[in-house]
Amino acid sequence: MAIGKRLKNAREGIDREKLYPVAEAIKMVKERAKSKFDETIEISLNLGVDPRHADQMVRGVVTLPNGTGRTLRVGVFARGPKAEEAKAAGADVVGAEDLFEKVQAGQIDFDRCIATPDMMPLVGRLGKVLGPRGMMPNPKIGTVTMDVTGAVKGAKGGSVEFRVEKAGIVQAGIGKASFSEEKLVENIKALVDAVSKAKPAGAKGTYLQRVAVSSTMGPGVKVETGTVLG
């Protein structure tokens, strides 16, 4: 398949078979992120799991030490004092039955959905709408909680949800091309640490198998797995 001239030029100087230390890989990715917008730096982790089996699912949330560079819109399902708490914490959309009707009609004005436990019978009915978008609140990742303030501020402050895909891959944005190399490396290590701690009991053999980093419009660079740990 033919590749664009821009991507072909960006690939120059990258050995596609070599594994680079993470700091060097990030430097190479940043140097090639020359779009007119601030490109997102993304990481891809190939894990030794088969998520078709329930005991090999990997999912969680991590707050990156240097944020993501992206401002998330947060929606909260809550009533009464908890609804007021959500608004005070900076939630963009707060409601109960009124918010349910909007979401059911396809009006989703948020990127992250949080709910208090008492709202889940209502929110559960939105599974077909929120589920495919990866927005369904879940207690395992802290989006079903009575700590509305903590959840909203975490989402606003750089928390990243991760979930393994069918092929055993976790992908996430870990910052922007404008971030320093040091901040991006810190964010990567925080994410990898969280994914490592989420290792399921059913995982066999090598858990973290391959790592690669890229920018939104740039080529991927393979990373030595040992350099992203600890």
UniProtKB/TrEMBL annotation:
Belongs to the universal ribosomal protein uL1 family. One of its GO terms (molecular function) is tRNA binding. The keyword Mitochondrion does not apply. One of its GO terms (biological process) is translation. InterPro entries: Ribosom_uL1_bac-type, Ribosomal_uL1, Ribosomal_uL1-like, Ribosomal_uL1/biogenesis, Ribosomal_uL1_3-a/b-sand, Ribosomal_uL1_CS. PROSITE patterns: RIBOSOMAL_L1. This is Large ribosomal subunit protein uL1. Pfam families: Ribosomal_L1. Keywords: Repressor, Ribonucleoprotein, Ribosomal protein, RNA-binding, rRNA-binding, Translation regulation, tRNA-binding. PANTHER family: 54S RIBOSOMAL PROTEIN L1, MITOCHONDRIAL (PTHR36427), LARGE RIBOSOMAL SUBUNIT PROTEIN UL1M (PTHR36427:SF3). It comes from the Bacteria. Protein L1 is also a translational repressor protein, it controls the translation of the L11 operon by binding to its mRNA. GO terms for cellular component: cytosolic large ribosomal subunit. Part of the 50S ribosomal subunit. The keyword rRNA-binding applies.
